[in-house]
Amino acid sequence: SILDACASLAALEEGKKNHVRIRDAGLESDVVVGTALICMYGKCGNLDDARDVFDKMAQRDVVSWNSMITVYSQNGYLEGARKVFDQMPVHNVVSWNAVIAAYAANGYGKGAIELFQQMDMEGVKPNNVTLISILDVCAILAALGEGKEIHANIVDSHLESDVVVGTALVNM
Questions:
Q1: What is the 3-class SS of 97-161, one letter each residue?
Q2: Could you report the per-residue pLDDT of 114-157, keeping only the tens digit for each?
Q3: CA pair distance 37, 126, nearest whole angstrom
Q4: Which sign, positive or negative, has the C-alpha torsion 12, 14, 17, 21?
Q5: What are the Cα distances from residue 4, in Å, to 20, 43, 97, 122, 168?
Q6: What is the three-class DSSP state of 4?
């Protein structure tokens, strides 16, 4: 889409012009269009406009919530990412992955591990993306005990044959 192109090129002014066209065409309230605007503004580093679009959305789906978490994370604003996560009505594995990755990417490995443990307590099963992220955190922190617990989780989940998960285990 044109918004993806603007985001890839960090063409904020062109993105804003397209936002005006979208608003004039009455498409701004569409959840898919709104999410694309959030992503475009976020990739261009414009958190205020990304948040403004998010706040004005009449309806949000899990993708729009996760996009806002990712926008904050990519721009180094972990507090905002966590606040959005905490406000989400329902968390799924993708939501957990987004906030765990946000903590890991911003140097808060212990927080990422705590979130992983909270995810487990809430009964959300990790997927291979979750496991790869958290194993990388364990490797960085030299958290062998937590890593061994996660390894047991991998075996229980029958994900030990996943090549990328296996590689993350070896790296840890």
A1: HHHHHHHHHCCCHHHHHHHHHHHHHCCCCCCHHHHHHHHHHHHHHCCHHHHHHHHHHHHHCCCCC
A2: 999 999 999 998 988 898 889 888 888 888 888 888 888 888 88
A3: 29
A4: negative
A5: 16, 9, 23, 35, 31
A6: helix
The answer to whether the CB of 40 falls within 8 A of the CB of 14 is: no
Cα(132)–Cα(163) distance, rounded to whole angstroms?
11
Tokens standing for residue 75: 């721009």
Per residue in 35-88, pLDDT (tens digit) is 999 999 999 999 999 999 999 998 899 899 999 999 998 888 999 999 999 999
Tokens describing residue 116: 């992983």
User: Rounded to an integer, what distance in angstroms lies between the CA atom of residue 103 and that of residue 43?
Assistant: 18
